[in-house]
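Changelog note: in this version the structure field was regenerated for every chain. One regenerated record is shown below for reference.
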Amino acid sequence: MADDKRTARAAGAAEKARLKAMRPWFKKKRFMIPLVIVAISVIAAAAGGGDKASDTATDAVRDAQTPDTVATGRADRQKEDQEVAIGQSVQLSGYTASVMAASFRPTISEFEEDGYFVAEVTVANRDDRAQPYNTFDWKLQTPNGQVIDPTFTSEKQLGSGDLVKGGSVGGKVVWEIGAAKGGFIIIYKPDPFDAARGIWRVTI
């Protein structure tokens, strides 16, 4: 009787082993565990990619909703430009700068008759430390696309110096333009390491 039981158990064990060996490869543990790991990795990567795509879409929406302070249709338009009207000010690099008026003058004196663009400007220092100011922080873009430096004339100009915290200065900046007419752009860029510029358009 005991021998029959042992024989039956042995036969049952042998049948289990046979059935286990005959299972499809994808149902075996040594294959299932790596498959589960791969599946988890794929799902995690997909989720991460979704987050990245979502972030990109969010950035695009944010950019689209950000007010564009730079007018379109202007040569040399740059993202950091702050374009305002004559009489208005810009704030950049710790300065507040304004162009109060701008006009064409055919002569400065009896010896200076070459045609001049004259701008009346102000600069104030908002920084906690002293900062320099200079006439040559101002440029003029002509209708044909030239960007020119101020011209030395007998007209008293802004000059150069330092401004303490809260200090301000005003003066004229003059460019020789000859008989050129059309749309001019006054450019203020006090910091060579900062891309931000103040922009004022004037048509004469």
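Spot check on this record: The longest helix spans residues 29-65. The helical segments are 2-21, 29-65.
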